[in-house]
Amino acid sequence: MAQKSFTTRIKITKTGKVRRRAMAQDHFRAKKSSRQLKRIKQQRSIALKKKTIVRYL
Description:
37% helix; Factor Xa Inhibitor; alpha+beta; elongated; single chain; 3 helices
């Protein structure tokens, strides 16, 4: 059975990679430098086995 909480937080790319949103984007950003904020905006990949990913989708 699909886990909706998991499927809403990930994106599967055309090549099959699983990407997620980086944490710490919503608040507490005033003290962070612009370099840190740029790095946070990038998507992160999830290192899971294909079998595990299929189980959650």
